[in-house]
């Protein structure tokens, strides 16, 4: 059911320093920072030949990544995102398998303007999984 690895998301305490690290030290193509108020994050995209890395930093009150950064002050991998062809079909299959969908279970528009869902880390080897309709 899952297809390509769309991105790995890393929460960072200093977005500018992290973007510089990926651009200069690792020699990657790095986007400008973009505020995403609806998602409570500022993002920088690192474009790799086969996937992307999303650098995330909290934006505004109640950011979903703020508590993560409190627990992991130097940053860390926050989630991985797999592509699916049909997000509602994927949701129904996962529910039937007993997996828990986070939030109200309805797809939300993610960082790429596509419908996304998050799956409970306890059901997926301790990893927060995002599904994005490709
Ligand atoms: Co993501």
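Sequence proposed for the structure above (134 residues):
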């Amino acid at each position: 059911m899952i297809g390509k690895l769309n991105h790995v998301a890393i929460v960072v305490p200093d977005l500018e320093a992290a973007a510089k690290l990926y651009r200069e030290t690792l020699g990657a193509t790095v986007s400008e920072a973009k505020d995403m108020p609806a998602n409570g994050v500022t993002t920088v995209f690192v474009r790799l030949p086969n996937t992307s890395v999303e650098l995330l930093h909290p934006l505004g009150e109640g950011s979903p990544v703020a508590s993560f950064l409190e627990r992991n002050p130097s940053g860390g991998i926050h989630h991985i995102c797999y592509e699916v062809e049909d997000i509602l079909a994927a949701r129904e299959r996962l529910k039937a398998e007993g997996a828990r969908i986070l939030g109200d279970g309805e797809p939300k528009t993610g960082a790429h303007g596509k419908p996304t869902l998050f799956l409970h880390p306890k059901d997926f080897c301790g990893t927060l999984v995002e599904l994005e309709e490709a």
